[in-house]
Amino acid sequence: MEPRIQYAKTKDGVSIAFWTLGQGTPCVQMPNPPFSHIQLEWQNPDWRRWYERLAEKRKLVRYDGRGTGLSDRKAADYSVDAHMLDLQAVVERLGVQRFILVGPVTVAPIATAYAARHPEAVSQLVLWCPWARRGARAQAIRALRESGDWELFTEALAQAQFGWSAGEKAHSQAAYLRECVTAETASAIFNALAEFDVSAVLSQVRSPALILQRRQVAVLSGVEFAQGLASGIPDARLALLEGASLFPWIGDMDAALAAMDEFLGEGEEAAAAAQTPEAGAFRTVLFTDLAGSTSMMQRLGDEKGRAVLREHERITREALKAHGGTEVKTMGDGFMASFSSATRALGCAIAMQRAFAEHNVALLRQAQDAHTEPRAEPVEAPVEVRIRIGLNAGEPIAEDEDLFGTAVILAARIAAKAEGGEILASDVVRQLVAGKGFLFSDRGDVVLRGFEDPVRIYEVRWREEG
Questions:
Q1: For site-directed labelling of 340, which of 99, 159, 187, 303 has its Cα 20 to 30 A away?
Q2: Rounded distance, CA 348 to CA 288, Å?
Q3: What residues does 446 pair with on adjacent strands?
Q4: pTM (2 decimals)?
Q5: Binning pLDDT at 50, 70 and 90, where does residue 377 land?
Q6: Superfamily for 276-461?
Q7: What's the CA gap between 246 and 218, in Å, rounded?
């Protein structure tokens, strides 16, 4: 049965067509701009087989980008940011909070940038034969497109994609390309993509990434470019496959699916191991809060302030991952996490504070070095990242992937009492880790909002003794 076509509206008013297939973990395969047509692709038996196989173990989401396929053909903006709005509209329409993101060929740089900007949303990133924009064959295809002969360009591109001896299959593919988009829109999209340099954001990607590259692909993609992406993304791996087609469903499709299943399966196993516990399970709850975040955003502005928040998110998530913590939710400038072990929770809190301290020292050194160099403009003062952390333990109520109850509220109240750079814990947490080598300072009984009786809290000493 053909999937039901639905629509989502972007923040700039563009209607985006999409369908879903299967059940389980959401997996969003982005379009390959400027060529996408979700209905015609489904009607192709080989293409459909690829989608069906992807949907066997998860919920596949597929959409047409703006200006293409069944989406709004009269969009005004085809920038990288605009393409991200398309993706955002679809996941918000479906109510998806976290998902696997698959970016084939020309959309791979956009998928990478989206993962860098939204680490909380992208659980894993898969790039298929990412667009290189370089090489003699790619330059020849570009020159042909700029010649203005739309039919000749699509025929040549199809032949290059399928192989120069493909015959009727390549002619059918060329016809499909012309159905996807107009020549004018295709040119606008290609020009917008050509201006984007993905290398600037590679180091900011925090999601595990898999780059799949066929060795013999000779147009729009290449092994050297794929290797560069894999080396630039911190947690990435490269899988080199045999084959000359840009389409995963042509040639050894099973090899591509096997590599994806292995990679995605690892993430799904990790998510299952760290899932929110059932009601009644004893957990240690940790809250973080970025000190002075409101004044920082006002002082720096949205763009620079968001860059600081991204660094805060990166360090926090790396510590949670290393200590087996489950990110329950993020509140923009803070996190709520849970642990099955109080020892792990305290170890994570200490690792966070030390990581932020090291980050701040590195910023100060960079600023000092910059002051020693002759510059035409003044050097901006470094923005330190200092967080408050509070911990409590108990039996929270688990509901809709969130935690509720007195144990959670008390952890949040304790965090609010901390200063930037401090870790405060309840007496319950202190007793749970007795004899484990942690050092505490008694802060006495404190009156907390919403609690009738004073609560005894302790400061966790985390700084290395000189």
A1: 99
A2: 11
A3: 455
A4: 0.59
A5: low
A6: Nucleotide cyclase, GGDEF domain (3.30.70.1230)
A7: 9
